[in-house]
Each structure stands twice: as C-alpha cells, then as structure tokens.
Amino acid sequence: MDWKIKIIELLKKFWQEFSYYFSDEEDPNEPIYDPAHFASMIILVIFIIGILFWLLWTLLVFEGGIFKKIIPSLEVAFTSKTLQDFGWLGYPYEMGIFSGFIGNGAALILTIAFVVGIWWVFKDLPKLKEREENKKNGI
To answer: Fewer CB near the terminus (10 Å): N or C of the chain?
Structure first.
C-alpha cells in the first residue's frame, strides 16, 4: 500500500508543476514580454537570415562564385595572359569566366561590411560584462 501512496503523491506533485505553466498567476521576478517586441524580433531575425543567405549565395554560388574568378584575375594581373584567354569579349555581353564578377564583388564588399558591423557591435561586450560584474561585487 505504501508504494501506491508514493505514486499518488508523485502524480499530485507532477500535476501541480504541470498546471503551473497554465496558471493566471504572474511571477513578479519574470520579465515582461511585449508581443509587438517579440513579433518585431522574429521579423528582424528572418530579415537578417535572408540578407545573410543572399550575401553568401551571391558570393559563393552566383555565376560560379568568387573563388572561380580569383586565380584567373591574378593570372591576368601578374602574367602575360589577357582577359580574352578566359573568354572575355566585352562587358556586358560575353565575359567568359568573369561573368557575374560585379555581383560577386558587391557581395564580397557587403559581407566584409556585415562582419565588421557585427564585430563593432560586439567588441565591447566583454568590457560591459566585466563592468557589470564589478558593480555586483562592489568594486
């Protein structure tokens, strides 16, 4: 009989914990989330993921990607090869292997700007955490 009482007590405890998630009582220690802020955060995240996808796709895939164009560009710059050796007949009609280099270059510049922007936003984060710890410790 003792084990049945323990099971019933365990089920009661589980039910109380489970029903807590659906109660109307609000804990004063919990942060308050505004639905408009939450929705705007979701839209912003989807927007940033879209930008990141576009940048990486344009940089790495569009018209063969930028890596396909690096070696021929260096060969044209530092050897006796010409643009015509790589299929260039004239911009914008027939550019051979260099087709899409404007899109790849723009994506490269924007990707670098994106990475520098992220670095600029988060560069002071360790200092802010240290300052917050010092305030907590009274230093």
So the answer is: N
How many Cβ atoms from other residues are within 10 Å of residue 110's Cβ?
Answer: 15
CA distance 9 to 17: 12
3-state SS assignment for residue 87: coil
Token pair for 125 = 């984060």
CB atoms within 10 A of CB 99: 19
- Residue 125 confidence class, pLDDT cut points 50, 70, 90: confident
Please, which pLDDT band fits residue 1 given cuts at 50, 70 and 90? low
Residue-range domain boundaries for the chain:
34-137
Residues whose CB is less than 8 angstroms from the CB of residue 6 and which lie 6 or more positions away in sequence, other chains included: none
What span, in angstroms and rounded, lies between the C-alpha atoms of 58 and 24?
49
* Percent of the chain with pLDDT strictly greater than 70: 99
Q: For 15-49, give the DSSP string.
A: HHHHHHTT-S---TTSPP--HHHHHHHHHHHHHHH
Measured distance CA(6)–CA(110) in Å, rounded: 63
Beta bridge partners of 94: 90
